[in-house]
Amino acid sequence: MNLTKQQIWILVGVGGLLATALLTSLLIKKRKKKKIMNTEGLVVKGGYIVPKGTPSMGDALHSFERRKSDGFGGRMSTKIKEQLVALYEKGINPEVTDLKVEVDSKNYEVKWEATIKPSTDGKAYTGFMTFGSAGGGADSRALGQEKRMKEKVGGKNYKLVLDFKNPTGIYIRQLFFQYERNEYPAHK
User: Fold this and answer.
1) Predicted TM-score (pTM) of this structure
2) S-S: 138 plus which of 15, 95, 146, 173, CB 3.0-4.6 Å?
3) How many domains does the chain have?
């Protein structure tokens, strides 16, 4: 097949246009995927049921992470931190933008749902922690733990995600914070 110089230049031009169109298409698809994450966010769900006969069942009801006495708990902070770090590793500074908690005191059941989105203030919130108390005097006990817990956990730039007060059944006051961890500096 003998091609003239003009035919060769036309083929090269058409090939270049096709390559450019393909690359542009791939970039647009990637941006659309990122926009879906930006608007809808990543939802992390969990929950737990306190087994009958568990010592101090009311205390176990607000063991969102785990309690010292027997290790019982829902590992909520652990699950949320894993997703915050996973998003960070994709080059996105994450934050928890919404947290919903339901406590069923009759059945000793807890359900929760956290929405994670790109950070609105540019900080990389890769840490998440919770502490609180149940029963009479729960408010003062829960609030009295804040300074000690922040010192114990470390990190910086703590931001309150939810100050939960159980509306029915066993009274629970639980605070949920996100924070920056030094090992995950904010992406620029």
Assistant:
1) 0.78
2) 173
3) 1
